[in-house]
Write a structure and sequence with these properties.
Low-confidence stretches of chain A: none
Shape of chain A: globular
Strand order of the largest sheet of chain B: 2-10-9-4-5-6
Largest interface: A-B, 26 and 24 residues
Mean pLDDT of chain A: 96
Largest sheet of chain B: 6 strands, mixed
Low-confidence stretches of chain B: none
Oligomer: heterodimer
Helix content of chain A: under 10%
Largest sheet of chain A: 7 strands, mixed
Radius of gyration of chain B: 13 Å
């Protein structure tokens, strides 16, 4: 059974840097073709895809946030991290991690299942 | 980046209705299109991937179709658990953008 759990600070101040952690089980990020993605959803708004990291340390980012976010992994602890700099109230959202499904080698990897339960990050002074 | 749109943004329906939601991409995404269902306070759940493949365990009343730039999600006979918001997502080209969502309510 695959599970993912997000954790991190619930309240951050504007301009601060935040690091969120996705702890997963049931798969390994040392396995070829495997990845983990981060997404977010502001209250009452739509989902936003943020970043994805692959087993080979390949990384992909949302174009509009690329200068502010970094995705990294620690395969020894089965964790993926999302670091976001210069936080602003508009970054207030529930942040999710999820496992991409499909086949990396045919270019069809990208649907997301399962998802973590999400962690709400509020940006406020 | 590829832009995704959904129509309608809100849909009022009743139990037993047939519901159709449309998702359009600004350029072809081939068949790399997924659909998710989200209820308030919960994480999204995958319903359909590769445009028409239904995730095992998802009720057969959910079907997906389309390719290229136009896709549909059909709920054959709406059930009480189906009142939710539905999102499409393309995974043909990075970044893997989501549609703005369609809320199905009473």
């Amino acid at each position: 059974q695959i599970t993912l759990t997000e954790s991190g600070p619930t309240l951050v101040k504007p301009t601060q840097t935040v690091t969120l952690t996705c702890t997963f089980s049931g798969f390994s990020l040392t396995t070829s073709g495997v990845g983990v993605a981060w997404l977010r959803q502001p209250p009452g708004k739509a989902l936003e895809w943020l970043a994805l990291i692959y087993w080979n340390d390949g990384k992909r980012y949302n174009s509009s946030l690329k200068s502010r976010i970094t995705i990294t992994k620690d395969t020894s602890t089965n964790q993926v991290f999302l670091t976001m700099t210069n936080m602003d109230p508009v970054d207030t959202a529930t942040y999710y991690c999820a496992r991409p499904g499909g086949n990396f080698w045919t270019g069809s990897l990208g649907w997301l299942d399962p998802w973590g339960q999400g962690t709400l990050v509020t940006v406020s002074s | 980046d590829i832009q995704m749109t959904q129509s309608p943004s809100t849909l009022s329906a009743s139990v037993g209705d047939r519901v159709i939601i449309t998702c359009r991409a600004s350029q072809t995404v081939n068949r790399y299109l997924a659909w998710y269902q989200q209820t308030p306070g919960k994480a999204p759940k995958l319903l359909i991937y590769e445009a028409s493949s239904v995730k095992p365990g998802v009720p057969s009343r959910f079907t997906g179709s389309g390719s290229g730039t136009e896709f549909t999600l059909t709920i054959r006979s709406l059930q009480p658990d189906d009142f939710a918001t539905y999102y499409c997502q393309q995974y043909d080209t990075y970044p893997f953008i989501f549609g703005p969502g369609t809320k199905v309510d009473v």
